[in-house]
From TrEMBL:
Binding-site positions, ATP: 108-115
Gene Ontology MF, one: ATP binding
Function: Binds and transfers iron-sulfur (Fe-S) clusters to target apoproteins. Can hydrolyze ATP.
Domain of life (superkingdom): Bacteria
PROSITE patterns: MRP
Self-association and partners: Homodimer.
The protein, known as: Iron-sulfur cluster carrier protein
HAMAP family: Mrp_NBP35 (MF_02040)
Amino acid sequence: MSVSQADVMTAMSKVIDPELHVDLVKAGMVKDVRVTGDTVKLKIELTTPACPMKGKIQADAEAALKAVPGLKSFDIEWGAQVRGVAGGSGGGGALLPGVKNILLVGAGKGGVGKSTVAVNLATSLAQHGAKVGLLDADFYGPSVPLMTGTADKRPVSPNGKTLDPLVAHGLKIMSIGFLVEADQALIWRGPMLHGALMQLVRDVNWGELDYLILDLPPGTGDVALTLSQSVRAAGAVLVTTPQDVALADVVRAKQMFDKVHIPVLGIVENMSQFICPHCNKSTPIFNHGGGRKAAEMFGIPFLGEIPLDLKVREAGDSGVPVVVGHKDSPEAKAFQDVARNIAGRVSAQSMKSVPLPVMQAR
């Protein structure tokens, strides 16, 4: 019995992407199907190299092909092509046409490790093979230069009008911390902040990016609101610690993103619990489970929890993110799981047919 290309496509149409809730054929993920007698070669192109469901998709695809009558052998090539939130190559809109997806990392209050999450999230996505940029938009406390080991470097301008981002750990990086003295306090009002922020977004040579991670300042002040209103974002990630006082601030952050029509992709619980390095006993220093509870209350995904560990702090101070310096540690794996979950949520967001609104700050 001969096998046809139609037989293969029919089999693949029965495989559902668990994150997108559509079959692989409808999602346009089946490519280059070549049938030779009773063998077939094809390519499955995932919507992100950090796909959290690749194992499930692979198992289902192989089972579907094994069920094709007359097919004796098959070879699946795996690839990934990140899609922009508006369905095109430039999800960042006119402001950032080469950027497919802009992700905002925010928190309702300071001290919850938002920048640590942003740095390790960006680095994890880059480790999976994505093209990633990281913009430190926390003007009052820019910590990305220290955390990425770039604090002693300065960006250059090739033409006197735009800046080339710095590169470290596979990331393109820009921060206001590169442009002011380390001990200089920024005493700027709203209009000055808006202008400087838009310059860092617009006048940096980001090039082609799958993801641009924006580390927002804590709270719901001018910078966070301006940025949220001026770019088309794939979504926001909220970072919290488990205790009630932090969770109360998450409510306000969620409300801000709702008002500017930016979907919240989910919640990350940082400093979730302390694991003793000597006895492996877990101690919920800041409580535990509050992030999951808040996610359930809002009806949004819980993206994962990051344990409280000395290695994470030391990694940030040394300029080598824990996912790089201790990539096999439980803490690094927790960040990597969160990154995959976020990438999956962005892929699901990109499948929606209605483009997200672009609002202009006034």
